[in-house]
Amino acid sequence: MFNLILFGPPGAGKGTQAIKIAERYGWIHVSTGDILRSEVSQRTLLGLKIKAVMEAGILVSDKLLIEIMESVFRKNNTAGGFVLDGFPRTLNQAKELDRMLVKLGTKVSLVLSLDVNEEELVKRLLKRSQDQGRKDDTEEVIKNRLVQYHKHTKPLIEYYEKKNLLKNVRGVGSIDDIFAALCKSIPE
Ligand code: AMP
Asked: Is 145's C-beta closer than 6 angstroms to any atom of ligand 1?
């Protein structure tokens, strides 16, 4: 089982690239943002609870994310691999992920970090708000999401660097060029 984490700030292109990687390698794409958005749009009990938090650009609780990921792994325990997009986002989530993977007899295989400068991130997110109308892509909320990234998620770089699992990939350029660079970093 190959467990790839696609890492990066909001707007780095994780979703776009994760879909392409999953397709090429036959792995399962797990976007926690998509899972949570679907709960909100279906107005489930959970969705109603997290709607305001998500729309404010704040992270949803670790406890909930861990429950979601446990269920994803339980349902797909024969998968050849996973591309994790948007998880883990806190140190606690990263540690819990390690624990979940040990239970499955596997571990994080690689973390590919998409590097994009902040100015470009904001530009992309504002464009996405016009194209897709995501409620959390407004200027105010984008600011919050970047703050959350710097505060809670960025420390994971060091966590995975220490484990020798992190590779940086330039996230600026055409989608195909970035995809090619990502694939080059994935062992055959
Ligand atoms: P994304 O589509 O990955 O940008 O996620 C959209 C929103 O979903 C985030 O701003 C958070 O509110 C929530 N979210 C997604 N993944 C996580 C996670 N791993 N931990 C906490 N909140 C998350």
From this structure: yes
